[in-house]
What we know:
Layout: E1 20-21, H1 28-45, E2 51-58, E3 62-69, H2 72-76, H3 81-95, E4 100-107, H4 115-127, H5 132-145, E5 150-157, E6 166-173, E7 182-193, E8 196-208
Parallel strand pairs: 1-2, 3-4
Antiparallel strand pairs: 2-3, 5-6, 5-8, 7-8
Helix pairs in contact: 1-3, 4-5
Amino acid sequence: xxxxxxxxxxxxxxxxxWTSRWFAKKNYADFVKEDITIRKFITNKLKNxxxxxxxxxxxxxxxxxxxxxxxxxxxxxxxxxxIDELRKKIVEKVLGNxxxxxxNILEVENPNLSAAVILESLIxxxxxxxxxxxxxxxxxxxxxxxxxxxxxxxxxxxxNGVEIARTETLTEGKVPLHTFRANIDYxxxxxxxxxxxxxxxxxxxxxxxxx
Length: 211
């Protein structure tokens, strides 16, 4: 039987790279857990800032966190006060004052070609009770106008508050999931509504990468 796999994970080394870059032996499990905790903390702390990815690099004494987002001004704050506050919170609540930390902020080149940014926008609209078909069509229009080769959006749950949950899929262009050299961005999450969670998945095909 065929099984589904995260299209970004299976393309590491082809079109994707690792988001955690460090080497460890006996502390490997602790570092993995710490990375997960850092990412969850930042994602919850910086909602609505259009975070695309959070990369973590480690050296002997320091941790470097690279946040790629659509709205860097929200994170940086006036005079860099936002970054200073974020660094302080991470050290206090996650790292326990045991290591130095550096935070770098990068801006997404084209937010409309970022699956994570589009996903965040779709979830916000669903939580505002905008009809799901309109949300899906508007999302696909934004992505295709930005120059994507194809896009697929899936929503599942009690769509528009109906009694029976179902799954709806909308696709435009092509999304070749079986081609490893295809540059496919992917993101998934859930919108929290009064009638339950609505699962949302986004695939964006940007073209093939030849190395």
